[in-house]
């Protein structure tokens, strides 16, 4: 099943160099606890607003 | 009376409930991905059949089509007295016409109820309306609870996952955007497809904490980081933000089997236009 993925992120991931940058941005932002900002193919600035972190460690253990 | 005939008749009468249930669970990409017993499915189908047949009977009577209940009853209990009743071609044709109509209605009703259940979040709130296993709801978005205590499914724009994979020598964390997942009936989840994946050793965690502390120290509390600091195209070059602990996986698609996964940390992202925003 398809997981949700926005058009802008999909486009950036389709290019290897952009994909590498994008994952670097998100990793760094996650580490700093801030929302990552990306610039899409049209040059528009978009913030990926973190909705809520969620760990499912306990779900697997409970199975 | 032949007992096979009796079994066929009972099956034909029970079929609308089974068809409705099958139609309800006939989702995209999908077989049923949650566990139920045969007894549970049979019970649900019998209950559904009862309602459908009752409504069908009421409709037939409303249309003044004759129904000879004693004959049907005798056929159901496999009684020899049935021979005394007349089973003419017309009554048999009427029965099959009614049955075909009931099957078609059941199929479309199942599909319609599924759409309604997803729209009204019945599949999240009531086990009998469940469509997928828990992983579907975890990986597609977030389930939240409204003020009146009802759960609803909140769609998100992007899902980022950190996955811990253990082998005999090392544990690795794979991080990337999730774009597809395959559910399974037995394990719940079969595999995950990621894109833009980076990998690092789990042991590097401690170093990361120290690194983050140093980086946090640089960000003064009164001066939040400018968005340009982490934008994709602004200077300084993004290579400055690359973490040396990570190795970028150069492929388009990275597949992780569920059997290899120790645990998953998930970030859900919504999106907003930031053109008018200077700082976060």
Description:
- The complex is a heterodimer of chains A (63) and B (280).
- By secondary structure, chain A is of the alpha+beta class.
- In chain A, 48% of the residues lie in helices and 22% in strands.
- Chain A has a two-stranded antiparallel ribbon with strand order 1-2.
- In chain A, strand 1 and strand 2 (45-55) form a beta hairpin.
- The model of chain A is unreliable at 54-59 (pLDDT under 50).
- Chain B is an alpha+beta fold.
- Chain B has helices at 3-24, 38-62, 69-76, 89-120, 122-125, 134-140, 205-218; strands at 141-145, 151-155, 158-166, 171-184, 188-201, 247-248, 254-257, 261-273.
- In chain B, strand 3 (158-166) and strand 4 (171-184) form a beta hairpin.
- In chain B, helix 1 crosses helix 2 and helix 1 runs parallel beside helix 4 (89-120).
- The N and C termini of chain B lie far apart (80 Å).
- The interface between A and B is large, with 52 and 71 residues.
- Strand 2 (45-55) of chain A pairs antiparallel with strand 8 (261-273) of chain B.
Keyword list:
heterodimer, A: 63 residues, alpha+beta, two-stranded antiparallel ribbon, 3 helices, 2 strands, 48% helix, B: 280 residues
Briefly characterize the structure:
Chain A is α+β, with helices and mostly antiparallel strands and 63 residues long. Chain A contains three helices and two strands, in the order H-H-E-E-H. Chain A is 48% helix and 22% strand.
């Amino acid at each position: 099943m398809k997981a949700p993925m926005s058009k802008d992120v999909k486009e950036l991931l389709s290019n290897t160099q952009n994909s590498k940058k994008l994952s670097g941005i998100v990793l760094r932002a996650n580490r700093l606890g801030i929302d990552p900002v990306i610039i899409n193919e049209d040059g528009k600035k978009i913030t990926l607003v973190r909705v809520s972190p969620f760990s499912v460690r306990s779900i697997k253990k409970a199975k | 009376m032949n007992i096979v005939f009796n079994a066929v008749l009972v099956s034909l009468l029970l079929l609308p409930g089974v068809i409705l249930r099958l139609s309800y669970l006939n989702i995209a990409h999908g077989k049923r991905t949650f566990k139920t017993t045969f007894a549970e499915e049979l019970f649900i189908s019998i209950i559904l059949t009862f309602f459908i047949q009752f409504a069908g009977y009421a409709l037939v009577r409303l249309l003044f089509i004759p129904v000879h209940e004693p004959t049907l009853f005798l056929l159901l209990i496999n009684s020899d007295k049935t021979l005394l009743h007349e089973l003419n071609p017309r009554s048999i044709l009427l029965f099959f016409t009614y049955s075909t109509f009931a099957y078609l209605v059941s199929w479309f009703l199942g599909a319609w109820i599924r759409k309604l259940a997803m729209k009204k979040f019945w599949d999240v709130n009531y086990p009998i309306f469940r469509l997928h296993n828990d992983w579907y709801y975890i990986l597609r978005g977030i389930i939240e609870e409204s003020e009146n205590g009802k759960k609803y499914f909140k769609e998100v724009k992007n899902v980022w996952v950190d996955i811990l994979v253990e082998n005999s020598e090392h544990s690795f964390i794979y991080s990337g955007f999730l774009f597809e997942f395959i559910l399974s009936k037995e394990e719940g989840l079969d595999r995950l497809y990621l894109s833009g994946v980076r990998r690092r050793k789990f042991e590097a965690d401690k170093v990361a904490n120290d690194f983050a502390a140093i980086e946090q120290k640089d960000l003064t509390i009164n001066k939040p980081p400018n968005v340009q600091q982490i934008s994709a195209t602004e200077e300084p070059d993004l290579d400055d933000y690359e973490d040396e602990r990570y190795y970028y996986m150069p492929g388009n698609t990275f597949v992780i089997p569920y059997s290899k996964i120790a645990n998953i940390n998930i970030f859900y992202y919504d999106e907003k236009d930031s053109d008018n925003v200077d700082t976060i």
